[in-house]
Amino acid sequence: MGGKVTLSIEVELGWGVHDLDAAPHLSADGSAERAYLSRLLNCADALDVPISFDVVGHLLQSACDGSHEGPHRDGWFDADPGTDASVNPLFYAPEMVRDIVDRPSGHELCTHTYSHVPCQTVDEETVGWELDRAQSQIETVTGSKTVSIVPPRHSRPSSETLREAGIEIMRMSRDTSDKSRPGRLVELLYGPHPTFEPRLVDGVVETYCTAYPSLTSSALPSGQRDPLAPFRLLPVRVRQSLQRQYLSRAIDAAVETDGHCHLWCHLYDLSNQYQWPVVRSFLEELAARRDSGDVRVLTMAELNDDFREDEAADASYADGGADRPHAAERADHPRLDDATDHENKERVRVYD
Ligand SMILES: [Zn+2]
Ligand SMILES: [Zn+2]
């Protein structure tokens, strides 16, 4: 047995906020995000740690004329510059995606839709168009479609539309906060990071994440943006140390329960000198604990396969078919249900 750990990182650049006002979290020309992606990929190569990268489909293009004939509302693509990567590197980044795919660590390209639509704000036709378009882009780069999605702002698409687009696994946020504002600040500093098992919802496997980025610290700058004022009172080293402990304990929890731990952030979150050393140090620990047999590190696609194989084996065991010696042991660790899963949209950060 042992725990399972999944890492997923949103790559969206300018598309993450193109329907909002400003982008104070991004570097002006995407250079910081590109530099830290290279560092992250080099580190993952050295440690052989695979990551699911949730990519906005439009970034896979090297250029466009700014007109995309989808069923979106008027003005949806107004922020699309209609130029190319050399002029607007926050809206086109095919070389970043190519770098992810070409690395030997088995990273996964997961979709974050084509143009970062919050799925519940548009009709099914638009979601379908977004997914078809994103799948075509991914297929061009990898040779096959992805089975994985992280919906922008965790705005839930319909299972039917997902299945029609070939999606088999989705990451959704599960808010564990039910706390006062001070309680929330303490949770962001100390955790604990929750553990939820994958579950099947209407034919689509759901894996979870926290409503706040968990691989990076909310108490340190997110990309180019300062953290909340109360956190700035703490020395940077203290904040880094607390995040490092948060991450170690997140793995501990997965190991102790034979459970699943899913950590996430945006690429921009880790793209600064404060976050990156913590992430790198954590990846080293994760690889060491993987090597010692404590945990497996699975992409979302691998988690999907793992879950479905387990379900099939359990069904077979229930039918008296297969020998499944650890099934009883598994029953000692019932999957957590939805009791704490009340979606509190006010607490979901706007930049996810
Ligand atoms: Zn375009
Ligand atoms: Zn996003």
Give a topology summary.
Blueprint: E1 3-11, H1 31-47, E2 52-55, H2 94-102, E3 108-111, H3 124-142, E4 148-149, H4 159-164, E5 169-173, H5 181-190, E6 199-201, E7 204-209, H6 229-232, H7 236-257, E8 260-266, H8 267-270, H9 276-291, E9 295-297, H10 300-318, H11 327-331
Parallel strand pairs: 1-2, 1-8, 1-9, 2-3, 4-5, 5-7
Antiparallel strand pairs: 6-7
Helix pairs in contact: 1-9, 7-9
Bound molecules: zinc ion (2 copies).
Short description:
This protein has 352 residues and is an alpha/beta fold. The chain has helices at residues 31-47, 94-102, 124-142, 159-164, 181-190, 229-232, 236-257, 267-270, 276-291, 300-318, 327-331, and strands at residues 3-11, 52-55, 108-111, 148-149, 169-173, 199-201, 204-209, 260-266, 295-297. Helix 1 runs parallel beside helix 9 and helix 7 runs parallel beside helix 9.
How does the major sheet shape up? Answer: 5 strands, parallel
Can you write the helix and strand succession as a string?
Answer: EHEHEHEHEHEEHHEHHEHH
CATH class: Alpha Beta
Mean pLDDT over the full residue set: 90
This entry's quaternary arrangement is single chain
Bound molecules: zinc ion
Helical stretch tally: 11
CATH architecture classification name: Alpha-Beta Barrel
Low-confidence residue ranges: 325-352
How many domains? The number is 1
Rg is: 20 Å
Helix content: 25-40%
CATH topology call = TIM Barrel
